[in-house]
Amino acid sequence: MEDQEYTGEQEHVEAAAQPANDHDTGQAVAQDEERVPLSALQAERRQRQELQQNMKMLQDHLELIRANQQGSTKKKQEDQFSELQDDDVLTVKEAKKFMESIQQNYQTSIEELKMQQAYPDYAETVQQYLPDVLKENPDLRDDIQRAKNPYKLAYFLAKKSDQYKAANKQVKKTNLLNEF
Predict the structure, then answer these.
(1) Distance CA 14, CA 102 (A)
(2) Cα 34 versus chain centre, distance
(3) Tens digits of per-residue pLDDT, 136-179?
(4) Distance from C-alpha of 8 to C-alpha of 108, rounded to nearest angstrom
């Protein structure tokens, strides 16, 4: 009977000592959780910087697309008519300018639609690869904006990029392996 009581006391003493050990272990775990390997921190920083660069490129690309779609002609249209009063008479010259700007906007929209129909991968290719091309050579942005068909130029510049070629090379290898 004494052995049983002693054993009970031992368990009670061990149980009482247990929280102190858990507390010490908790502090050690908390200290370990606060420590992050330098390589992991550097990898996170690199990844964040790459994502920020990609986001900046996509924003620039989006601005380019918006600029091409809306164009400066819309602003010119607004400027042309902002000076006129409601009771002013529209001259033939002003009407011709207005019609030309509408025609140009219409033509630009049609060219983009034609590109999307002719090349099903147009939107994806331009969105994914053009920012890299513009990052390597920012002057191309102006060339695209001045081009007769900016959508076509943007598409073919994206297709000529090293990243596009590398991605398609990998896809071709995968397709060949799947055939066998």
Answers:
(1) 87
(2) 32
(3) 888 898 898 888 888 889 999 999 988 888 888 877 767 666 76
(4) 89
Q: Which residues contact residue 57 at a Cβ distance below 8 angstroms, ignoring those fewer than 6 apart?
A: 131, 132, 134, 135
Q: Give ∠ CA 110-114-120 in degrees, rounded to 5.
A: 140
64 in Cβ contact with 141 (< 8 Å): yes
State the pLDDT confidence band at 110, using cuts at 50, 70 and 90.
Answer: confident
* DSSP 8-state class, residue 26: H
Q: Which of 6, 160, 130 is nearest to 68 (CA)?
A: 130
Using CA atoms, how far residue 136 sits from 94, 112, 115, 163, in Å, is 42, 24, 24, 12
Give the whole-angstrom CA distance, residue 64 versus residue 144.
Answer: 9
Residue 110: both structure tokens together: 């049609």
- Report the alpha-carbon distance of residue 37 to residue 129 in Å, rounded: 34
Handedness of CA 149, 152, 155, 158 (dihedral sign): negative
Measured between alpha carbons, how far is 63 from 55 in angstroms, rounded to an integer?
12
Single-letter residue type at 136: E
Angle at 104 between CA 95 and CA 76, to 5 degrees: 60
